[in-house]
């Protein structure tokens, strides 16, 4: 099983919105064969809490324009790791230190990456 077309559409839109706010290290993994709760994890890095908030707002705005609303948000107050769960996709916006420490890329390295269509 692979990620649905809707999940790929949302992942690309989230990545584009994050890229517009200068997020770095944007990558997506098709986790549909490993998890039943979501199809794609989108990971990106923000340099500081204000940038991470701007990335979060841009992702939410872009996905809302596509009819998607988050079913869960976590980590907004700390500003070091924000998780936006859209059921089809989960967007992780992490500060560089958290990204390195938790190493989600290593954890999901068995999964195929999703072409996000970014330059």
Please provide a written account of the structure.
- The protein has 119 residues and is of the alpha+beta class.
- It has a single domain (5-107), classed as Beta Polymerase, domain 2 (2-Layer Sandwich).
- Helix content is 37%, strand content 24%.
- The protein has a five-stranded mixed beta sheet with strand order 1-2-5-4-3.
- Helix 1 crosses helix 2.
- The protein is globular and about 35 Å long.
List the helices and strands and how they pair.
Layout: H1 5-20, E1 24-30, E2 40-46, H2 49-65, E3 72-74, E4 81-85, E5 89-95, H3 96-102, H4 104-107
Parallel strand pairs: 2-5
Antiparallel strand pairs: 1-2, 3-4, 4-5
Top keywords for this entry?
119 residues; alpha+beta; Beta Polymerase, domain 2; five-stranded mixed β-sheet; 4 helices; 5 strands; 37% helix; 24% strand; cytoplasm; repressor; Ribosomal silencing factor RsfS; NT_sf; Iojap/RsfS/C7orf30
In the CATH hierarchy, what is the architecture at level 2? 2-Layer Sandwich
**Strand arrangement, major sheet:** 1-2-5-4-3
What's the domain count?
A: 1
CATH class: Alpha Beta
Major sheet summary line:
5 strands, mixed
Described by the principal axes of the CA atoms, the overall outline is globular
How much helicity do the residues have?
25-40%
Q: Which H/E pattern describes the elements?
A: HEEHEEEHH
Q: Span between N and C termini? A: 28 Å
The count of β-strands is 5
CATH topology: Beta Polymerase, domain 2
Strand content: 15-25%
Radius of gyration using CA atoms only: 13 Å
DSSP summary: helix tally: 4
Helix/strand/pairing category: alpha+beta
Residue windows where pLDDT falls under 50 for at least 5 positions: none
CATH homology-level superfamily: Beta Polymerase, domain 2
Mean pLDDT: 94
GO cellular component, one term: cytoplasm
Organism: Aeromicrobium piscarium
Main location: cytoplasm
Family: Belongs to the Iojap/RsfS family.
């Amino acid at each position: 099983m692979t990620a649905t077309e809707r999940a790929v559409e949302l992942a690309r839109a989230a990545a584009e919105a994050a890229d517009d706010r200068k997020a770095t290290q944007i990558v997506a993994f098709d986790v549909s064969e490993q998890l039943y709760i979501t199809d794609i994890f989108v990971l990106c890095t923000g340099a500081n809490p204000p940038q991470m908030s701007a990335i979060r707002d841009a992702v939410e705005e872009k996905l809302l324009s596509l009819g998607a609303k988050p079913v869960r948000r976590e980590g907004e107050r700390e500003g070091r790791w924000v998780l936006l769960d859209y059921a089809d996709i989960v967007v992780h916006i992490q500060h560089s230190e958290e990204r390195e420490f938790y190493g989600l890329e290593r954890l999901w390295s068995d999964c195929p990456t999703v072409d996000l269509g970014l330059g």
